[in-house]
Amino acid sequence: MSDIARIESADIADLARGAAILGTGGGGDPYIGQLMALEALESLGPVELVAPADLPDQAQILPVAMMGAPTVMIEKLPSVDQFVVAVEALGQYLGVQPTHIACMEAGGVNSTIPIVAAAQMGLPLLDGDFMGRAFPELQMVTATLFDIPATPMSITDDKGNAGIFNTVSNLWAERLARVATVEMGAAAIVSLYPMRGDQAKTSAVAGTLSLCVRLGRAVRQARAAHTDPVAAVAEVLGGRLLHLGKVVDVVRRTTAGFARGEAKLAGLEHDAGATLTLNFQNEHIIATRQGVVLATAPDLLICLDVDTGEPITTESMRFGHRIALLAAPCDSRWQTPEGIALVGPRYFGYDIDPVRWNQVSL
Amino acid sequence: MSDIARIESADIADLARGAAILGTGGGGDPYIGQLMALEALESLGPVELVAPADLPDQAQILPVAMMGAPTVMIEKLPSVDQFVVAVEALGQYLGVQPTHIACMEAGGVNSTIPIVAAAQMGLPLLDGDFMGRAFPELQMVTATLFDIPATPMSITDDKGNAGIFNTVSNLWAERLARVATVEMGAAAIVSLYPMRGDQAKTSAVAGTLSLCVRLGRAVRQARAAHTDPVAAVAEVLGGRLLHLGKVVDVVRRTTAGFARGEAKLAGLEHDAGATLTLNFQNEHIIATRQGVVLATAPDLLICLDVDTGEPITTESMRFGHRIALLAAPCDSRWQTPEGIALVGPRYFGYDIDPVRWNQVSL
How many domains does chain A have? Predict the structure, then answer.
């Protein structure tokens, strides 16, 4: 059974905050995702959550997601009608009626877009995803580790253009969908990884939508109780504080459909005198302090506002922002050799071994 | 009735030469197109040609073409099996059985690829195309002037990747298919502009495959009779000689899926002392001599070897090549305001009015 049985409009603020935490810097403005989901649930009612373990083997699951640079979405809001268009385009191409909607990514707007689609289509939503966090490329899902193909996939834009891809690998799905996304204006809606219940059961990271709600709630309750919201998040995720710092520099550029760059956090309090560098490609990939790599993807690198515990995306980082950087463990399947090949530092172009969230003595 | 009733293997050398003439610099190496079509016709027998006027109104026509930079095709030969894959992918998506194959472009390999597909599928081929020459972008067809949509279209590559696009305009089809083509390795096979017989009847440029055969034959016969093959081509097309020159410079680069550049032809004989510049984007767009624009797209600018009358593509132009540059009239529909907007000099980025093939006194 799922941790929580349904998502109601009252859960959305917590869920969006939690999704931004798992978004590890990427995933877009959580406020936009929150507004979209709130509007859908208030007008259409709650969305039923189904745990992967409770899926019928023959369930027909169509995940839906936004692809592109989160930076762009702030200026160009996704149209809520587009989500169903993408799901239906894939369903029609496959000749199947979906029985469940799913998230591919439990991070940022990709946690809330499927809620909107599920509400609009009157379908239950999988309580889980296929990353357990956010990653920037579409082959970076546990489904790839289980040889579940990303295609057939649909891709749609806000102008009414649509495409279907059938590719020889999930990396080729990423390559073709990425260039189409860039041409479509750096943001597109995709429905991909169509799968049966038995496939989702074995490959999904279970319970991540419930986890988003619990994470967001923990921050809210800590603030109400005047306890430390950052510590509350670390406790829920089983992670730890890596660095307390003030943003002194952010370099961000939108290239090839990604937000890439780095941020420098000058240490505060017990970290005073040490500057930490965060490298990101939509999501935070590497944290380095005084030449020492403190933690890397696939473990989670999470920036929270020191005082409020609010998650901070790479787009919202500003000079002077006081940030608590947490590291937390990823789903264990990412720590296999196959997982590291797919989402480890070398894939992102850094010639270093992965460093676990708790590996370095601070 | 079509000018010639069928294409046989004995016609292919003439047809490929004629197609390279209409290719106006683009369209790829005619020898490659010739080999592919020869092999198909020798093993599978002749392909029936059908004049647009003879099409049943309910005929289901699926055109097929190669998209990309012709430069690339010289190093990466298209696989003949890919053509049928593209046509069948579109037919399956549409749920129709094609009754006829067609060329979108009567130029270079896009005249011979549909012959291969027609032979392999045992279908008749339209004696016509939708440009009456070659143009570099997929919206640049008479079908666009008749509001016939380019999509649904299929796109396939040599690795086994495939896509379907549904776009809001033919220009959007070009944009999305172009970036996919570039990612696929700068060459892809597309099946597009699916149309009925009545649509093809009104929009096609009739007789252009027969014209290719007649053009190629005229060159061959002139050579055999020791008469001037260049004059023979000019006569068949109703064009004229613009410039006789020797290639002294060629700048060519493959960018955004196109071969772009310019060639300089130092004048010979009565053109001695005057250098002509040809600007091309796959095809020749503008011919300028001593600051005077002599002719522009949409009229045809054709480079032939001075002595043999063999067409010369932009890829095969070399220093020292002695070239006769012909200009010839395009299909009259390109000279309407809508046609000029689609394929005139301004679309290609030159801020000049179009100049007709016979407009300037030489």
Answer: 2
